[in-house]
User: What shape does this take?
Amino acid sequence: MSEATLDIIGIGNAIVDVQARAENDFLVERGLDKGAMRLIDAEEAEALYDAMGPGTESSGGSAANTCAVAAALGARVGYLGKVAADALGRVFAHDIRAAGVHFPTPPLEGGAPTARCLILVTPDGQRTMNTFLGAAVHFTEGDADPTEVARAGILYLEGYLFDPPAAQAAFRAAARAAHAAGRRVALTLSDPFCVHRHRDAFREFVRKEADILFTNEAEILALYETEDFAEAARQVATEVSLAALTRSERGSVLLAGGERHEIAAAPAQVVDTTGAGDAYAAGVLAALARGLPLPECGRWGSVAAAEIIGHFGARPQADLRRLLGVAA
Amino acid sequence: MSEATLDIIGIGNAIVDVQARAENDFLVERGLDKGAMRLIDAEEAEALYDAMGPGTESSGGSAANTCAVAAALGARVGYLGKVAADALGRVFAHDIRAAGVHFPTPPLEGGAPTARCLILVTPDGQRTMNTFLGAAVHFTEGDADPTEVARAGILYLEGYLFDPPAAQAAFRAAARAAHAAGRRVALTLSDPFCVHRHRDAFREFVRKEADILFTNEAEILALYETEDFAEAARQVATEVSLAALTRSERGSVLLAGGERHEIAAAPAQVVDTTGAGDAYAAGVLAALARGLPLPECGRWGSVAAAEIIGHFGARPQADLRRLLGVAA
Assistant: This one.
């Protein structure tokens, strides 16, 4: 097993977020499930964009957010994901590289446009996401470069990649490449609806491939088809070596073998919860990469999440290392 | 004189802002004057974008920001400005229309791309702006539709329009159309460097065409080539019927004929001063359109500015009418 030259490599849908404030009525009128992510086609994306309020564009994508936050925390990070050779693709590539993340995936030429997620933020700070995947569905096995994957101590995969069929295959190939190189594989379940859509595939992947699992309450209940969080937690602890269960303002629970650590949420003023889970995962992974003990990994996750929900957008604005009180 | 069907129509450079945090050293290394706006060409725009940090894209443009804020304050608002038929142009048009602003200018086909302003926000909340004008310089007399201009009670012009030569002609044509229809003409000086570049033209326009002038301290000192604010204030009061002089955290002064009103700044936590002056002008103009007394016009300006500097970006996020305690 060669030495890792990256701490983390993420794979995910490479997406530019278009965030706008929306009233609850706007969601109700359009039958949108508050807080969920749904996939929309090009036509619906146009129609919804025309109807929604003034927006702010910023690079997003769940795993890409995690990678940007982990880099801000001092980890050595890479990212694989597919944008198009268009204006939004240029924005995505600029932003992730400017965040200090190695991003080698070539853009898609002459096909679908760069993926965008139309995010409606309601006055309660919740976000309802409408994703047009565009070029992101063209992320295929060839893009999951095994040499890049083998460079990183932890491969981090977002559950949303189960949606594009070709990406699912790339996902499995990347996990095999990581394990072949003696690396760990981390998965985030991403979204309860995504778990419903692909439950069997997720169950199998968690059992057979995932060493580390990130999930919130709704997602893990969906995964194990139970209403009982304690039961779901018991089950996941037998399937992965480290499970990080997030519970919004009630903090998180880290389970590793027989260990159980309850982690408090860091104080935060909720402006916009977009990217909170992504930032939490980044904190945990960046601390794991430094070899820190689990309670400290949890604290890094909580502090990173608190910074992200205190402002609009899913990428950090403050100096995270200063917030954590750690050296650069 | 027919009845106005709009309260305000703005004309300005239609720009998408790309904002990124930057350290003071970044400005020093590149010889950038903190707090100023400078014009850059396509090549320099590429180089600076490559070097700067992760960005957030949002619609900007000084007069366009003012129009969006005035619409949020309940005024009936139109805007004229030139974007290209490209992705950023689509973003600009969507955002200003979604803000409730009438925006009839057709996009430029097959020419320069939509203008962008690369804004570097330093830890002190100041912004240093680097503008590539692109399609905005193709705003010509034909775009300053006299029918649209005549619809609005107040024509609002940004001083930055003195930079593109064709826009300057359009600017004068619009002022003539407004006065011919019995409307008022308002001007904002925009930037001290812009005033230096075009001082004689500004002086003449203020004396001959402007009924209302918005300016900050640095701008009015540049206009009258003096170091003495009181002297500059005395002079401007003889040249326009209403002058609004802004002094950052020291509030503003409204001068109209013999009247002088000192307006306190509204309490604000400075996150990013981008658009503070634009929002102040919007507050004053929207209140003028309602026929409110001058001290109340000043209060509207202060409250709108305080909202804008409390977050990243130059367009409002909170409910401005609620902040002012006025009915919708």
